[in-house]
Amino acid sequence: MNDGDKASYGQIFKSTAIVGGSQVINILVGIVRAKFMAVLLGPAGVGLMGMYQAVTAIVGAVTGLGISSSGVRQIAEAAASHDEIRIARTILTLRRTALCLGIVGVFAAIGFSKPLSRITFGNEDHAWAVAVLGLTLLLGSISGGQVALVQGMRRIADLATINVIGAALGTALSVPIIYIWGEAGIVPSLVVVSAMGILPAWWYARKITVPRVSLPFGEVAKEARSLVSLGLAFMASSLMSTAVLYLIRVLVARELGMASVGLYQAATTLSALYIGVVLNAMGMDFYPRLTAVSEDNATINRLVNEQTEVGLLVATPGLMVTLAFAPFVIQLLYSGQFVPAYHVLRWQILGVFLRVVAWPLGFVLLAKGKGRTFFLSELTWNCLHLTLVWILVPLFGLEGTGIAFFGLYVCCTLGVLVVVNRITGFRWSSVNIRLGSSFAIIVTVAFLLAILPQKNHGMVANGCLTAAVALWCLRRLYTLVGAAWFTEVGLKIKHRLGFLRS
Fold this sequence. Notes:
Elements: H1 3-64, H2 67-81, H3 84-111, H4 113-121, H5 127-132, H6 134-152, H7 156-181, H8 186-205, H9 217-256, H10 258-273, H11 275-292, H12 297-333, H13 342-367, H14 371-396, H15 399-424, H16 430-450, H17 455-481, H18 483-497
Helix pairs in contact: 1-3, 1-6, 1-7, 1-9, 1-10, 1-11, 1-12, 2-3, 2-6, 2-9, 2-11, 3-6, 3-9, 6-8, 7-8, 9-10, 9-14, 10-13, 11-12, 11-13, 12-13, 12-16, 12-17, 13-15, 13-16, 14-15, 16-17
C-alpha cells in the first residue's frame, strides 16, 4: 500500500474518529435521556413521544424541501470552486431559504393539526400538541441550514462539537421538564431540544468568514432554484422514509397497542445507537468529499470501496456487542418492561450490518446529482419496507417489524449495487468481497448464539467471538492508516488532556 492510499484511508478514519468521538458523548447523553424517559414515562409514554416526533417529521419533510441535504452539496461545490463570492451567495441563499421554509412549517403544523391528530390517534385530542410542535420545524430548519453550511465546508471538528453541545443542552433541560410534568411535559421538552440545537450551530457557522454580499429577493429566488430542485429529491426521499416510519408506528399501535410502539421505539433507537457513529461519520465528510470528485468515476469507485472497508471494520464489532448483550443493555438503559424489544432488535442488527455495506453506495447517487434515480430507488425501498411490515406483523407480532427491516436491506443492498454499477461501473474490491462475506458469516453465527435457550452460554460465546473480531479489526485499521497516524492522534489526545506530556 502506497503513501497515497494510506493518506486516503487516514482521512476516512480521521473523520470517523472525530465524528465518532462526538457521537460517543452523544450516546452517553442519549443513554441518560432514554433512561429517564423510560422510567418517568413507561412504554406508553415513550410510544406517545415517538408518535409526536413521527408526525412533526412528516410535516418537516414536506415543508423543508430537503434543503438541509441539498445545501451540503451546493456548499461543497461552491467551496471546491474556491470562488469566495460564489460561496457567499450560496451561504446567504441557504440561510434565507431555511428561515422561510421554517416559517412555512409552523403554519402547516397549525393548519393541519386536527386532521393529523385524527389520522394518528383516531381523535382530535392531540391537535394542540401537533400545532405547538410546529415550533420545532422552524427551529430545526434554521439549525439545519447552519449545520449544512458547516458540513459543506468540511469543518468536521466543528460539526462534531455542534452535535455534542446541542445534545447535552437539550437533555439537561428536557429531563427536568419530564420529571416535573410527566407526560404533559413531552411537547415542551421536544421544543426545548430543538431550540438548544440552534445555539451551537449558529455559533460555529458564524466563524466561517466570507465576503459580505447583498442579494435582492429576486436574486435569492433565482439562486434558490438549484438548491430546491435537488432538494425536492431529498424531500421526497425524506418524506417517504418518515411517512413509512410513521405508518409503521400507526400500524403497530392499532394492531398491538401503544406499549408495543414504545418497545419498537426502544429497539429502533438501540439498533441505531452505535451504528450512528459510523454512518454519521460517513455522511459528514464522505458526502462532500465525494461531491468534489463527482466527475471522476474511477476516484468515486475507489473512495466507496475504501469507505466500505473502514465502515465494516469499525461497525462489525459494535454490532456484535449489541447482539451479545442486548437484553442486559435494554434493561440497563430502559427498564425491565422493555426487554421484549430484544426480539425486534436482533433482526434489526442483521439489517443494520447490510446497511453499512449499502450506505456508501447511496451517496454516489447524491454526489452525481441523480435526483430522479435517487427518488425512484427510495420509493421502491420504502414501499417494500411498508409492505413487509404489513404482511409480517400479523404473522409474527412485533418481531415482524425486525424481520421486515432485515428483508428490506437484503433487497436494498443488492438493488443499489446494480444501480451504481450502471452509473459508475462500480464493483466491490476483492478485499471487500472477502471481508464482507467473512463478517456476514460471523454476524450470522453471533445471531444464532444469541437465540440459544441457554442465554448465559450464548452470551459468553458471543463475548469471546466479539473480542477476537474486534482485535483483528483494530489490527487491520492499524495496517491501513499506518503507525504514524495513531501516534499523531495519541499526541493530540495527550496535548488536549494536558497530561502525560513528554
